[in-house]
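Crash report, auto-generated. Payload:
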Amino acid sequence: MTAIAVESVSVSYNGTNVLTDVSIDVAEGTWMGLVGPNGAGKSTLLKAIVGAVDYDGSIRVGDANAPDDRKAMALRLAYVPQRPVFPVGMSVFDFVLLGRTPHLGPLAAEGSQDIAIVWDSLATLGLTEFVNRDVASLSGGETQRASLARVLAQEPRVVVLDEATASLDVAAQHEVLELIARIQEERGVTVLSAIHDLTAAAQFCDELTLIDEGDVVATGVPEGVLTESTLGDVFEPTIRVIEVEGSLVVVSLRTEGNPQ
Amino acid sequence: MNAGRPAGSRLPWWWIGGAAALLMTAVVVGAMIGAVSIAPLDIMRSALDRLPFIDVESGLSERDDAIVWQIRMPRVILGVIVGSMLSVSGAAYQGVFRNPLADPYLLGAGAGAGLGATIAIAYGPDLDWLIDPVPVAAFAGAVLGVVLAYVLGYTVRAGRTAVTLILAGVAVAAFLTAAQTYLQQKEADSIREVYGWILGSLSTAGWGEVRLVLPYVIVSMIVIVASRRLLDVMSVGDTEASTLGVKPARIRLILIGFATLGTAAVVSVSGLIGFVGIIIPHTVRLMTSASYRVIVPLSILLGGAFLVFADILARSIQAPAEIPIGVVTAFIGAPFFALVLRRSKGVAT
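Recovered output after restart:
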């Protein structure tokens, strides 16, 4: 089953093409990573999928057709942008409670079931002791966990993450990626995430799509996408892909001023 | 395991109780103070006596009863209505624009009302009117100002974002204020009256004004109170709010519409009382929570109490003369707000 079907999608900003005729399929229950250089169009593709930018072509998430029905879409799909907004003064609990929005009528208040789901989401992400804290005062890793808790509270089938771990140190990055993997596994959700760290992408994603200059360059299992020749064309020729304890590790060698 | 909301997510009963008690105190003190002082217990007994099925000996003489119920109480009640409406409109504007500097006059409601009132004051007396033209013109001007700003913001190619709308409001307000200033200078005879109106006053208040504005205020307050959860959703920005299944542009239009309706109604009878719409929601935000589930109801109660106290000062400091209430709201509001700001952790946007 296909969870996200993107067919011939093009996006342009002020006459400049950012995505050209992009098609990808994300299978249900899998984790697809979008990789590629800065400005390749990864974030734009994610924004098109969540209905945040206008596009030509067709995007379907389950039965919902973005951006026709916002509510049906929000019931299926949760999104964490590259720089989520954490309102100053809002408690972590209230922030996670926002995830219940698509499940409520426009003027309805949250019921006890909504509150219980929020507590459950907070417990899954280890945030129970932070409930009364100002969400804007959390550390980088904690804010990402708060975002993921809101995603869980939304109870989606599909999670779209734009650089969920961009500003985190290596330990916090791994912690967040492990949490995403756990959510994917335990709740059977489909994950589509833009990810910069190619080594992490190889370890966590079931499939990868490599995008460059608005085009899909390669798609498939990490071993097929992360090859030295493909990455060399897209990034720089000095990229090396090595295997450490059964996992792919992508490194870039220094070419100038190398002390060796 | 955990059942309800944690403390940081609840509206504490003592805040609601305290704010309601403060509002009641303001109403009683407002009815007590004046050239003739009247005992608070007598006022409360008299108020009880007026409730259906309750019969209490009020202790007020006929003259005092008339002073309380025909002169002071309509003014006090209008103060409650105006203060509550301006505060809750300010909260709604700050929520939909995610801007702490937003106030009910942001999109041209104030400038439009000013222009309308100036036209009515300058040219109205020459004509034969069935009703006082100033409030009608002020109401129409306020609504027209916001409609102009919205239409201008909506037609900008860059999109219907909160920022485009604010900039459109700035342009419309500047234009309307320029027109108002021109008329005011041209019709120099009316300058004093126009200026007095702009600074705001509750001195002409009677039950007629209360009846006139109450329907608008009730409707717009019901809409804003019912939308308080959606204001929290708006606080994460348009993109995230829309991925949570709401339509930010539509919520903004509805809330601006009703906040403007209520603001236009109160401004038409009170003039442009400034500052209330910013400081009350912010004071609540800084002292309690950034959630609009807390800010909206508390702004209604505290905004009403604040304006009644400001009006008591406006009519007592230089009694029997009155100073404009807008001067008082800024004079006591600004230092108080500065104090709250100094003690706070930060301002939510």
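Post-recovery validation: Chain A has nine helices and twelve strands.
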